[in-house]
Amino acid sequence: MASITIRNLDDEVKTRLRVRAASNGRSMEEEARRILADAVERRTAPANGLGTALHELFKPYGGVELELPPRDPMREPPRF
How far apart are alpha carbons 46 and 53 in whole angstroms? Predict the structure, then answer.
């Protein structure tokens, strides 16, 4: 197993880490290991895309019905 040293750690960060570790019943070292492991854990891609996620987010607010403009016939492509 590897070990690391963290230099210039802010006193407030160390205090908060100590309190967090105590509230979870762990040592500061174990708490830091868990935080680091969670931070670098490989995240899987979401099952849905961005559009679906946005739709689900705003679904409770209702939708908007937009009137679609009439479509014109296609133009003739240019001839070279």
Answer: 9
Question: If 0-12 CB within 10 Å is exposed, 13-18 middle and 19+ buried, where does residue 8 land?
Answer: exposed
**14: alpha, beta or left, given left = phi > 0 and alpha = psi -120 to 50?**
alpha
- Do residues 26 and 19 make contact, with C-beta atoms less than 8 angstroms apart? no
CA–CA distance, 68 with 32 (Å, rounded to integer): 56
pLDDT digits (tens, 9 = 90+) for 15-38: 999 999 999 999 999 999 999 999
Contact between 26 and 34 under an 8 Å Cβ cutoff? The reply is: yes
Q: CA triplet 32, 34, 38: central angle to 5 degrees?
A: 120
pLDDT digits (tens, 9 = 90+) for 39-67: 898 777 667 889 888 888 888 988 788 89
- Structure-block tokens of residue 1: 């197993």
The one-letter amino acid at 2: A
